[in-house]
Amino acid sequence: MREAPHLGLIGCGGWGKLILRDLKALGAKVTCVAPGERSRANAVANGADHIVPTLDELPEVEGAVVATPSDSHGAVLLSLLPRNIPLFVEKPLTSDRATARLLAEKAADRLFVMDKWRYHAGIERIARFAKSGEIGDVLGLRLYRLGWSMTHNEVDPIWNLLPHDLSICLHVLGEVPPVATAFADGLGPASSGLVAVLGRDGGPRVVIETSAHHPVNRRSVILSCTNGTVTLNGSFDDHLILRQGSPNDLNAPEVEVAIQNNMPLEAELAAFLRHLNGGPAPMSSAAEGAAIVERVCDIRRMAGLPE
């Protein structure tokens, strides 16, 4: 039997500690790069096998997971590239266009982005509705990511929220369409939220509303097709709501579609471990991650916000 893979985890803060928890639950050996007192305490509490204070002191590992602040992703990944190992980085790939392009060019076959929503059972089922044609041709996709929290200080909330919805769009439609229009939502600081419309003439229309300064908490995804509409109303729901019939039919019957809800963080980490053991690559390649960064920059520019 093959020994448990040895991974490096760079960063063990509020999200990194959950990554460590799940990696250990999946049987991995983990060395944490944890420079601060809090991150070291998280590493100890969640079962790190070894802890080192700097990236230079990370021993030889089979792969690495990067969970540092978003604005440091580029520098950390560029430092790891000479090791020639598979890399899994928390979204977004970077928070700037040029570095995302560089990484996609230099590590196309071994750098992947942790877009956890692509591993959510509800999103996977919605994608099957879209691709199978079982409720007709796709008319549009609407995504809401609203709440009252400004928890990440390294970049503004749009950089933390919007990549989630763009990755869902990629998973459901197979692409992230170009931007038609975008504007800051007017609730709170301009950089805390926006509304964006994506799509091509004659193609599905994607509407995204995202805000970290909204009084109502909402995480929902709605796919509209010619013969039905299917909705995931919340992250932890165990079913989708399917309205069968034309979107114009207000009396269309409503049906619950059961899903086996999972923990998408653990699911994506399991996919990375399988890859280290010779399995297929995780979803969200470096090229796809860079495309999402490009689209975030396009949306921000159109909304009058700095890239």
UniProtKB/TrEMBL annotation:
Q: Where is the Gfo/Idh/MocA-like oxidoreductase N-terminal domain?
A: 7-108
Q: Which domain of life is it from?
A: Bacteria
Q: Which Gene3D superfamilies match?
A: Dihydrodipicolinate Reductase, domain 2, NAD(P)-binding Rossmann-like Domain
Q: Which SUPFAM superfamilies match?
A: Glyceraldehyde-3-phosphate dehydrogenase-like, C-terminal domain, NAD(P)-binding Rossmann-fold domains
For this protein, the record's InterPro entries field holds: Gfo/Idh/MocA-like_OxRdtase_N, Gfo/Idh/MocA_Oxidoreductases, NAD(P)-bd_dom_sf
**This protein is called what?**
Dehydrogenase
Give the originating organism: Aminobacter ciceronei
Q: Kindly list the organism's lineage.
A: Bacteria, Pseudomonadati, Pseudomonadota, Alphaproteobacteria, Hyphomicrobiales
